[in-house]
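Subject: Predicted fold for Signal recognition particle protein, 297 residues

User T.R. writes:
Posting the sequence so we have a shared reference for the thread.
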Amino acid sequence: MAFESLSDKLQNVFKNLRGKGRLTEADVKAALKEVKMALLEADVSFRVVKQFISAVQERAVGQDVMNSLTPGQMVIKIVNEELVKLMGSETTEIHLKPANEITIIMMAGLQGAGKTTTTAKIAGKLKAKGRKPLLAACDVYRPAAIKQLQINGEKQGVPVFSMGENHKPADIAKAAVEHASKNDQNVVILDTAGRLHIDEDMMNELVEIKEAVEVHQTILVVDAMTGQDAVNVAGMFNDKIGIDGVILTKLDGDTRGGAALSIRSVTGKPILYIGMGEKLSDLEQFYPDRMASRILG
Ligand code: GDP
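User M.O. replies:
I've generated the structure tokens; pasting them so everyone works from the same file.
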């Protein structure tokens, strides 16, 4: 389960706080030191942890809290509120154009992050909302990726546009949009190529796609299990091509949770959805408040 160890540690700290009755400033500071350690062990970025702890501390050591009847509860409430804030407070949706226009969504990410699977998951969500999505196979380097998209598209009942491996991704994107316009489809989701590491070619290819068609939303798919690497990847993609939001995959297998807690603060971009399993239905909207409750138990 996601956040298992962070959740366990925080619950221990809070059990001690609750049990104390009256609290001194030193008690709160000692507890926050433990919270800090727990967050660092969860692979939350150091800068984010420092800011988080000082924000909590500023609110938690005041007389209002110390003199209240349940100071432990108040500290926990403050931690909860700051966690929600850290993850962006509001739920952010993928922004779509009106249904009579074509919305172009570009999916980006490193190989293995779960991009192709997530592309099909998103298509299913949009279809359920009454949209008519078309998936476009722009990963021309791995024939298996095209095949995988076709299989997943079929499972979702969503058409897949492919031109094989011998065309430039930007040209495929353009042709896919034309195809959508002829066939009354109003969302085109571009599944782009991922590589093992970020490189110039990869970024240039994404820029070329953006120059060829009017991409309305660029969504980055990152693997939660890679922790701070996922956060760094998100920062780099945002600097190079500009992203509108992040989908965090494999949160079902991420016991630490550092990426979920750091990405918003480091990149300024919201987490839109979380991947909770391999099945095409395992994609959940991201709710910062529910996530904070999940962490605090
Ligand atoms: P791509 O290279 O980025 O297109 O990655 P794929 O879509 O091929 O996914 C790589 C692997 O991760 C596959 O085995 C997927 O089933 C798996 N995967 C994708 N998303 C999730 C998720 O949210 N949870 C889990 N447990 N596995 C996932």
